[in-house]
Fold each of these.
Amino acid sequence: MTSSTDSLPQTRHIATAIPGPTSAALHRKREAHVTSGFGVAMPVFINRASGGILEDVDGNRIIDFASGIAVTSVGAVNARVQAQVAAQMARFTHTCFMVTEYDSFTQVAAWLNAHIPGDFEKRTALFSTGAEAVENAVKIARAATGRKRVLVFDDAYHGRSLLTMAMTAKVNPYKKNFGPFPDEVFRAPTATRLWARAGEEATAATALAEVEALLKANDPETFAAMVIEPIQGEGGFLVPAPGFLGGLRELATKYGIVLVMDEIQTGMGRTGKLFASEHEGVAGDLTLTAKALAGGLPLSAVTGRAELMNAPHAGGLGGTYAGNPVACAAAMGVFETFEDDTLLKNALAIEATAREVLRPLVHSTAIIAEFRGRGAMLAVEFADKTTLEPRADLAAQVAASCHRQGVLVLVCGTYGNVIRLLPPLVIGPELLRDGLDVLREAILAANEGQSDTASASALAVV
């Protein structure tokens, strides 16, 4: 099979300032026609993409450490996905699965039933977006339990629809000015490594005790669902302390609450396993997938225990575009790409290289509080090491420096002080290292700038 990277050199190349003149002109056109409610991380317009490279309209080749926010894990151009989509496009683009059926919907469901964690009989429902998957998981849990309430967690991100905004923790930009939100959503603490001053086990135990206390204070038998990301994405790529997810599993079982694993960003090989919950040996009653599921086409899924999934009445689930046949075909191409362990091994190799390049900076600089993550889902957190005060200004400075040099990184975190790395799982090792070196040098420059500022302040006092 011809490599999808053959036509686009897998090297960084700066042809103009970034953004270049053509991108700048197109951005002005965008401002005249597109709502300003959409933000943009890097204002360049892309002409081609392949492997780990985005080529913009000015001829700049930019290293992609974003993957469209963890979507193009198998590459923005993947031969298997292309072949499946082309074949489906030649047949038909849409019928609506609730009107007339097509087998690719069932094939996608069967693959997910076989591969989602959990040793129990499963069923799957397909939708279009991650937020749809989250909302439908809540609907399913409510239908199955007869309960209303939903438990979510600090630093959570679950979407931009009205219910999922209520479930999301971060206010700006996701919730600001958009309320009021649905009630019956409760928020509990998590156990993450950076803030674990008393040690990971103590933090997990403490957080779990607070979760149970919250449930008891509000009658645990009124909670339908407990929704958690096995690694919290927009919240800052927060990895749970060992035992925390397992403890949630025990609490959910104890009180008859449906445990929902939101694997929308973490799933489909991103962390070095097909699903991040596998690292903890914990299975959700329902598991959510989207983003990388269909290689760039909109497709999402809720997969879980058959008795839960079958609880809604016929016609209670659906949507005009739910499980669109072209998106289902793309997913079949993604599944083919995962038939061997190559991409999972690539994710682990990405992690090993990134740790080699970036982890030493935790100790050699004064501005990085933690390097963390799993597989190709990695993060650098900027904070004052003594007070742990977040430094969003430094994350923005480093990201801007990377962008100018042709490396696309994204900022995230509840406090906007985290740079997250989401390279495609097909990125080449030389390209990966080049991008990481650019990031490393940007961090060192920012650290040096802090030292210079501190020295200048000291001289001013003298």
Amino acid sequence: MSQQQPNNPLHGLSLEKILTRLVEHYGWDGLYNEIKVNCFSNDPSIKSSLKFLRKTQWARDKVESLYIRTFS
């Protein structure tokens, strides 16, 4: 992947920043309503959610897609 990504709306954003902003916007319940993964409903935290999302590409893709739909 090239370093230059002028058309990538996530360029320069860490997964942690993306998740934190979504939680601030939706809350954990709202985030779970958008993306049905247990880490958003069962004792959710940024740390545990990041651990799951880093291992689970489909869930990370959904989080990134939701971020783009919400904030673009």
